[in-house]
């Protein structure tokens, strides 16, 4: 940069920033997803699971999990020179849901991460975004050893509207997560355009 201008003589691009939520059940991979794609060191608010939490934290299918997010995960990714996403991973347990309203303020859209071994764990997140008309897609995190199901079977099991995208992904893989985030942005933009058209007609 030279005097606030690029070396090619073009003015610097002021990126558009969007807020994306990453939600889903306990142990579904939200922290992993944010960490896999964030270009900054993610802010994490993880604490060790305790004996006191065992009666309320269902570890079925995630027996190896030893920590839990108690506030949020935060990361950032630049998709293009002019497009930056801020990622907010929500806590999965019901006792932390009171924070969701504040976190969802101003969000462009959301990813609901799903585990086919515990699909029912993402119902609360789906219901939350549907009730608030926040565009979302479902990312099916393909865990090792988890049963693989066709996208339409997952859609049917979750009773999703036809326009809600469902994508298979690997929350550990940067490129896979990028595709999910691009899908959220596209879906949210389409949703916003449809709402504008409905208002003007």
Automatic annotation (TrEMBL):
Keywords: GTP-binding, Hydrolase, Nucleotide-binding
Family label: Belongs to the GPN-loop GTPase family.
Segments crossing the lipid bilayer: none
Protein name: ATP/GTP-binding protein
């Amino acid at each position: 940069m030279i005097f606030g201008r690029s070396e090619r003589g073009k003015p610097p691009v002021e990126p558009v920033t969007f807020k994306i939520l990453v939600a889903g059940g306990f142990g579904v991979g939200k922290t992993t997803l944010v960490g896999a794609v964030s270009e900054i060191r993610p802010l994490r608010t993880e604490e060790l699971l305790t004996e006191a939490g065992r009666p309320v934290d269902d570890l079925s299918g995630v027996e190896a999990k030893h920590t839990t997010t108690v506030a949020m995960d935060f990361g950032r990714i630049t998709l293009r020179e002019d497009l930056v996403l801020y990622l907010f991973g929500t806590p999965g347990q019901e006792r932390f849901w009171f924070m969701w309203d504040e976190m969802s303020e101003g969000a462009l859209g959301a990813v609901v991460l799903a585990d086919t071994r515990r699909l029912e764990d993402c119902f609360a997140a789906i219901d939350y975004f549907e009730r608030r008309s926040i565009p979302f897609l479902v990312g099916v995190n393909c865990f090792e050893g988890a049963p693989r199901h066709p996208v339409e079977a997952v859609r049917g099991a979750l009773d999703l509207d036809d326009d809600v995208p469902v994508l298979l992904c690997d929350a550990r893989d940067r490129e896979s997560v990028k595709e999910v985030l691009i899908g959220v942005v596209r879906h949210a933009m389409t949703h916003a355009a449809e709402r504008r058209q409905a208002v003007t007609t």
